[in-house]
Amino acid sequence: MDPSEFRARAHELVDWMADYLEGVERYPVQSPVAPRATIDRLPLLPPENAEPFDDIFRDFREIIVPGMTHWQHPSFFAYFPANSSPPSVLAEMLTATMGAQCMSWATSPAATELEERMMEWLRGMIGLPGTFTGVLQDTASTATLCAILSARESFTQFQINERGFSPEMRFTIYCSSEAHSSVDKAVKIAGLGTSHLRKLPVDEQYALDTGALESAIERDRRKGYTPLCVVAAIGTTGSTAIDPLRTIAGICRKHKLWLHVDAAFAGSALVLPEYRWMIEGIEAADSFVFNPHKWLFTNFDCSAYFVRDVEALVRTFEILPEYLKTPEGDRVNNYRDWGVQLGRRFRALKLWFVIRSYGIAGLQAAVREHIAMAQRLAATIGRTPDFELLAPAPLALVCFRYHPPQVTDETLLDRLNAAILDRVNRSGAAFLSHTKLRGRYTLRLVSAQTSVQQHHVDEAWALILTTARALSL
Q1: Collapsed DSSP state (helix, strand, coil) of residue 134
Q2: For the chain, how are helix, strand and coil distributed in percent, rounded to 5?
Q3: pLDDT surpassing 70 at residue 73
Q4: Is the backbone peptide bond immediately before 301 cis, with ω within 30 degrees of 0?
Q5: How far apart are the first and last CA of the chain?
Q6: Given a cut of 60, is residue 160 above it in pLDDT?
Q7: How many Å apart are CA 404 and CA 241, to the nearest integer?
Q8: Structural contact between residues 447 and 453, judged by C-beta atoms closer than 8 angstroms
Q9: What is the per-residue burial (b if ≥16 Cβ within 10 Å, else e) of 319-354?
């Protein structure tokens, strides 16, 4: 493809992209295709000769698009969103065009320095103390792994990296039973063993029981274990529960444990000053992560990871073979040493575009309205006799279930709500997801997609009501 054809095809694709964003509501939110429907339409072998671009783009529209779930649909209420926005998409186009591998300052000085400044912007926007320094990771899962590895190496004076584990090293990690599964995965990858992960009880609000935390730490010490790290959640995946950070921080200081704070979704709400109570005590944390790609309109992947001790992070990961040595030395940041990956995408550009395009005030207005939509829905559910809220709704997530007064059998209630979820999602008009809270099948509706408006939430609720009341009890 020569530059002239590239120009023509790029215009064609941008037109399609603009039409897609403008008309995404015409698609079913969740793809209705059956398993293997896509792969059965793909040739078994690659083409021997070049194929016309018209054919490739036609197959994209006819084979790929029907098999996609449309995360940018305003009626996408499932999981947590993977938000995008037009400024972010435009920045990604520029990033892809330049094709830079931004592993070090020398490989793209502007990419490194823009990332440094964007992390300073984000730090101020969400109210983190100036003692934190940030770096962009791909996901919060990677950031949590970085935190646990840094805790491990800091505690052992970086000896496990050098010599490996010794038999007497039996570290324990602590989180609530509602913590994200990335904690389990990080403990496995870090070699600490999932049997040494303590998943602790939660209170009535699904937040970590701090009494249980302190008891578990003391019990493990008596048994000869070495407590290492606590992962606190600001907005759990199941219900957006908020762990009591200040109390947890005090326990970590007392017992000299690393404190990592996972605010993957809820951290974006910290752009609102009235939500900064969620991180009271953050000055005592060692690391903190949130994902602009979830709720700050910056498309996947873009995870903001902050640490108090940059040296501990860098010493955990740095490796300097001859072919990576450059003359700049300590005058610059080489972000290849700030995480797992050597190769790095130019993620900071889309953050720069988004923050400048919306401004802090625009981001705040959008996040505020998303929360208000959830609050209104929660209030409506609270007034509906045959539905019940199953968790507080402090942010943009509502957890609820259908519960006709005459039905007391929990197994039947689970089946009824699973049927509602299936029928709503198969309708194509909305997409929800579920969890289990205290063993109860729970419907989740997240009102945080970039372009969601109140009427989308109202229409989803009307669909849920109609679907529920059409079920045979």
Answers
A1: strand
A2: 50, 15, 35
A3: yes
A4: yes
A5: 61
A6: yes
A7: 26
A8: no
A9: eeeeebeeeeeeeebbbbbbbeeeebbbbbbbbbbb
What is d(CA 387, CA 399) in angstroms, rounded to the nearest whole number?
A: 11
Tokens of 76: 């996408």
- Domain borders along the chain are 1-30+69-82+359-473, 100-345
- Options 3.30.70.20, 3.40.50.10310, 3.40.50.150, 3.40.640.10; CATH for 100-345 is 3.40.640.10
Cα-based distances in Å from 371 to 377, 378, 454, 460: 10, 11, 11, 16
Contacts of 263 (CB under 8 A, 6+ apart): 233, 234, 235, 270, 278, 279, 288, 289, 290
- Structural contact between residues 345 and 99, judged by C-beta atoms closer than 8 angstroms: no
Residue keyed to tokens 């912007």: 121
Average confidence score pLDDT of the chain: 94
> 432 and 424 in contact (C-beta within 8 Å)?
yes
Average pLDDT over residues 114-139: 96
Res. 124: pLDDT tops 90: yes
Q: What is the Cα–Cα distance from 319 to 339, expressed in whole angstroms?
A: 11
Cα-to-chain-centroid distance, residue 143 = 11
What dihedral do alpha carbons 453, 459, 464, 467 form, nearest 10°? -160
Its CATH architecture, for the domain 1-30+69-82+359-473, is Alpha-Beta Complex (3.90)
Nearest to 186 by CA among 150, 160, 223: 150
pLDDT score, position 321: 67
**Residue linked to tokens 């040595």:** 325
Percent of the chain, pLDDT > 90?
91
Mean of pLDDT values over 176-202: 94
Tens of pLDDT along 42-60? 999 999 999 999 999 999 9
CA distance 380 to 376: 6
**0.85 exceeded by the pTM?**
yes
- Kind and range of the H or E element at 454? helix 454-469
Name the residue among 431, 434, 430 with its Cα closest to residue 442.
434
Provide mean pLDDT across the span 385-404: 96
Tally Cβ neighbours within 10 Å of residue 409.
9
Give tens-digit pLDDT for 321-378: 645 667 777 788 888 899 999 899 999 999 999 999 999 999 999 999 999 999 999 9
